[in-house]
Each structure stands twice: as C-alpha cells, then as structure tokens.
C-alpha cells in the first residue's frame, strides 16, 4: 500500500528485479534468468532488518514485514534495500519511503492505493470500517449545468448505480471553483448517501493559495475519495513543474488521499506532468472524428502539427488501448514508481470535432477496452449525456461497481489472453483463487461466422456465470470457443478452474 494506518498489523514491500536497457546499474551476466540476488532491507531508525532472496528479471516479489515496531507518524520512514550477488561480486541499492500514518481524528476518510495491482481501497463509513476495493465507475458531472440545480440530483445519480462522482467546477465564478456554501450542502449529502467524491481543481490548481483553501475546507468530508488537479495540462501547455508543485502542497495538507490528473497528448512531456499525480487519466475520444484534417481549425493534422481532438489517433477503438499501453511503457522508462491509470471514455457528441454521440455498444466497448488494458477506474466525459448512453452505463454500473467484480479487476494481474480465428478481438482475464473474470471485446469490424477460440490457463472446467452479453462461449479442451458474433459485441464471463 502507498500508506498504512494503525489498524494494519503488517505490510509488504514489492521488489522488482527486471532487466532494463534504460536505467539502473550494469548487469553483465547474460544468463540472467537463472541468477538470484540476496536481499537486505532496512527501515531507518526503526532498526527493522529483513532478508530475502529473489530471482533476477522478475517482478512483484512480495516481502512482508510487521508494522508494530513502526510508530505512526506523518514523516515517512526511509527504507534502504541492498541486493547482493551470491558470489559477492557486486551489490545494488535503492531507497523508498514508507508511510505509516496516524489515525484521523477529524472524521475524514482515508483512501489507500494498492501499489501491486493499482486499485483503491476504502472503508465503507456508512456500514463498517473494513477495507474494500473500489473500482470507480462514473462520469465527470457538470456542476453549474446540472448538479447545483437540485440537491436531490445527488440521490438520483447515486440511484443510477455509479459509485463516485467527479464534479466539474464552474469557471464562470470569480473564484473559478464553486459556490462553497452550496458545495458544502452537496458534500454533506454525499456523506449522507455514501457517494464518493472526486474533487476537481482544474481552473485553480496553479493558484496555491486557492488550493490550500479548498483542501483545508474539504479534506475532512467522509465522502472525499481523491483530488484532481490538472485537466489536460499537457494540451494546455501548463508550466512543466506546475502539477508537481501542487501535488507536494496537497500531500503536505492531506496525506490520506491520492492525487490525480488527466493527460491529453500522446507524449508531450509525459514525465514532467505525470510526476504530479498518483493516478493518471487518459481521455482519448476516437468516435466520429476526422483524425487527419481539423474541422475546427481547417488545417492538416499529423504527428507534429494540428489539433483534431484526438492526439496522434487513427479514429478507431485501438486508439484507447494504445494510449494506455504507451503510458505504462513511458512510466517504465522513467524508472520511478509505477502509476495507476484510469480511462476516460467519450460520452458526448454533436460538437466541435465530433459529429455524433457514441452508440451504446461503442460506450461499453470503450469502457471495457480501457479495463482490458489495465485501467483501474472509469470516469466518462460527461454527464448529463444522451438517454441511450445514460441507460446503458447505468446498466453496466450494476456489474462494474459491485464489490464482487472489483475484487477481480483490483485483486489480480491483468492478463492478455491469446485469440485465434479473428484479429479484432481483445481479451483479458483476472484470476482470483479458482475463478477468472474474462472480458471479451469484438472491436470495430463486420459480424463474423467462423469459430473463434481463446486460450486459457490450464485447469479451466466450466463457464460459471455470464455477467454481460449474450454468452455463447463454451469450454472445449481448455479453450473458450464460440462460432459467430457481431461487431462491438462485449461479453463478461466467469470461468471456474479445478481446485
């Protein structure tokens, strides 16, 4: 976890020893897969010393440690790791920070970020204090366009099944934020009904005085889930250090909640802007858009010039998955801690670059494609939306916002599964104990009539449940098989494995 609290009895470190050709210290043994490292790990003044052995070129090695010897405090514990070759010929070292924070005494909530799988853990303050995974599924919601019109809209939104709400501030106000008297009533209502809040400071995040005022005003609300600072700071050309400066200030004021921002560009100073957040959102809008000629500016769009509303896109579904994959790759190149990524599916249309709204099938595909490529949250732009999209996303929320399904998406590695029989089907799985959740997406293409098969890990025994879609997938000698299907078909199923 990115932080621990006094109720935690133990924690764990994640040790990665992947071979890198970009950063690190030289490793001169060619047969590195058979090599091991002896690990010595120490925690500052706590005098906690741990030893372990891991193989080279592996990741996600967990080393548990007790927390009882680490007094809760706001200052992080400095952790040093030393990795020695067994023959003693070389040693490698790295450092990190461990946060064991005091309990909150102001009534506010705590959001933990799982550094292994990238998900959020929260306490349901309306029921009990146990920690549960939360897969955010919701919209950016217009404050002045809808929310502030009636306090009952909070309950209406909650009743549609969404588990968080991202409130978009009112740029028309003098403070470029909110009427804070009205906002307090809104947050009190969210506290009451148990609707998590993603708080947006897009217009004010570079005004540090305003940021401090807003954080101090809101940080004790039980419904506060996380902060949101820059909205497309790369596309806006904000100062490269702006997001990090604000991140450091927020963390000094509120260490209990993560900070997020949304990046718009394929790669415009990714490292600098991403350094200012724990969670990076990606808003790729590929539906009904001309990606080669700007209908707004009447200019060409290519890799170096022009704005077509979707940076370096081809106008197909793969734009979404490609962007999430490349962001993860950038983060590995940077060499810092991994980031969590969320998707921002398009839920608007008939404006600027986009000639229509997505269809219901396109909306579901964009959402599930993001999750298939390791997004750990979905916040669509924007609400209110069309009746068609409102209906389908409310229906999908019954699946994605449930605790049972969140435990798959947030409790296991995202595993791409190999497909034969069609090149335009995207499949990923998440296995927890003897069951695997599988998401099967037919991307933009004509319907097909031939047999398609999906390779599963050994031991798959039965299709236990169909959570979404028409089904029709059957197990045959360890393969998921189906004959025929239609464009933009989405199936979410659970497969059981032999014990």
TrEMBL record:
<protein>
    <recommendedName>
        <fullName>Glycoside hydrolase subgroup catalytic core protein</fullName>
    </recommendedName>
</protein>
<dbReference type="InterPro" id="IPR017853">
    <property type="entry name" value="GH"/>
</dbReference>
